[in-house]
Amino acid sequence: MFTLHGRKALITGGGSGIGAATARQFSRAGASVFLVGRGEDKLRRVQEEIVSAGGSADVLALDLYAVEAAEQAVSSAAGSMNGIDILVNNAGLYHPRSVLELELADWQAHFALNVRAPYLLCKAAHPWLEAAEDAVVVNVLSNLAHRPVPGAAAYCASKAALLSLGQSLALEWAEHGIRVVSVSPGIVQTPIHRGADLKGAATMHPLGRVGTADEVASAILFLASKESSWTTGSDFSVDGGLHLV
Prior knowledge:
CATH architecture: 3-Layer(aba) Sandwich
Helix content: 40-55%
Largest sheet: 7 strands, parallel
């Protein structure tokens, strides 16, 4: 099992889905976690689960759409854990619309949460990451960052932009000892896909099923661990082979 003993992780979108699964796995691996999201009740439930299992977790409910939210999240997390050495940018927006149906506000909202928020979080966290040993940023992307589909232009474009941002940071921050990597899930059983035809979606994946949040979280755990210490700028497909078809 990969270990994160003594590590301090800030995870956005930590109240459900991939973010919550990552928080649980990080905690079991020995990390302290600080969870950020909009729903305080969801965050508290994850926190209580982690603490009852003997882990360390704190939470902050705030809306990352706000420009000032990133600084607040980083300041609160660093204060709670006495530092940050792992940042997981998981919070995201998926609101499918065709280009002609898409309102400017929807386009801006996707880029605000899927690109601007990670950019601001990375900048705010940089001093803490630079001071840490084997610091890492993990961006949660999507298979659609690589292969767009009709009806999701804002989501596809924003996730592609986050991929490029992460690779730029990997180059710029390598000399600071900070790794920047990403995961690109296929269709996963999470709230973002609530109401979707998951049985139909399963047939799209060569392995014949959709994924689970824990399967993506396991990849994030590896990327955050010292076992991947020579990995930066890479994107890992965790998608049941969907990127091959």
